[in-house]
Amino acid sequence: MINRLRIRLTLWFIFLVIAAYILDASAAYWMLNNRLISSTENNLRHICESIAPAVDYVDGKPTLSNWMHVAIERNIPYENTIQLFGADKTMFESYGPAGIKKLVNGRIDGVDDNGRLSVYSHYINLPAGCFVQTQLSFQSIDQITSAFISDQLIRGIPLVLLLAVFGWFYSGRAVAPIVKSLDTLRTFIDDAGHELNTPVALIENSIQTIEAELQEKQLPTDVLRIIQRASSTLKNLAQRLLLLAKMEQPSISMHFIPVNLAHLVTDVVHDFSQKAQGQGVDLQIYNLPDVTVLADPDSLIEVFSNVIENALHYTGADGHIYVYGFRNDNGVCIAIRDTGCGIPIKSLSRIFDRFYRVDQARSKKDGGTGLGLSIVKAIVEVHNGNVRAESSPNKGSTFFITLPIASDKESKLSQLSAANRV
Ligand SMILES: Nc1ncnc2c1ncn2[C@@H]1O[C@H](COP(=O)(O)OP(=O)(O)OP(=O)(O)O)[C@@H](O)[C@H]1O
Ligand SMILES: [Mg+2]
User: Residue 20, Cα to own-chain centre: how many angstroms?
Assistant: First the structure.
């Protein structure tokens, strides 16, 4: 549980930092792109303005042929496209690298004789209603921005790895107080279970001695019965506390072996059949799938005993309890349905909490501790399964216990490791 919490904390930490990193990198990308575009725009405007005075007009048409001669003579390199357009926006002349023959301010993507082009373009009006336009290929801007993106990605990978290590380390420190509290709680539950066991055994022995004496003197034993019931409640509580403590360290206290679930459930149901008959309750099994699960058999017996015991407890005479099973997406599900008093909707989500009882007074009177279903949940979860309940008040309840089915390989491996342990 703690490890799962640490993994979740670490993943959240990495997720949040990556989200912040992506936001920051996107903002930096946007700023870089804008800066590059505005500097290109200024550059192009400046070129247009400096070329405009060199434009000659022959028969009303703009020309830069004289300027070109000078440029060629002086060997002036120019990497921009320079275009001249008439008042009707048709292009007359074009110098420099290939450009797109369209009068546009801003980015244009188009096709030229040289293929697909992407340029940034700027034009200004000439006195005769004509236009001079310069264009610069977007290639250099694209190169800078894609280099920026790959730099961010390259920087991001070690950053994520580093964050994972830091996240794991710091989540360990963050959960340390929780681990400590859980340890204290675990020790407390274990100690309380053990500490209760001794006085309960003493009380039970004393009851037997006093009972014998009272019977000998033919005195009433009513008060003794009350003490006996209280003692059995205490014994029940001690055993359940010890079981709960056991669930906290399943690797030490449980041995997982391949178990035929149908056989195990049938045995448990048979153990309760006499009690059911005595109560006038019809307890039936049907459709149990023949599957193997990897489980600690004693713990699984505890699970089904608890749920069937509850069903018997809360189902009156002439009631029915059906135990059946089916396969589902998560493995195999065993359902225990009763036609008893049911559970109020508001209590359904709480019945698996420790010490929760729907009817506190009645359950206490019956010797219930309110720990049965929390033990069921803990055991089922240790087996990587889940348990849930459905109920309609006054109609009955159904408890669904789902467990993963063991594959042949898992069964063999577990048999091997069990043999090695022996
Ligand atoms: N089949 C059922 N029908 C109706 N109510 C139920 C059923 N199973 C459980 N409950 C309710 O859920 C509560 C919790 O059950 P849980 O088994 O944890 O405790 P308990 O039976 O009271 O005590 P114990 O620790 O001895 O099992 C019960 O007190 C009861 O109110
Ligand atoms: Mg119970």
Answer: 21
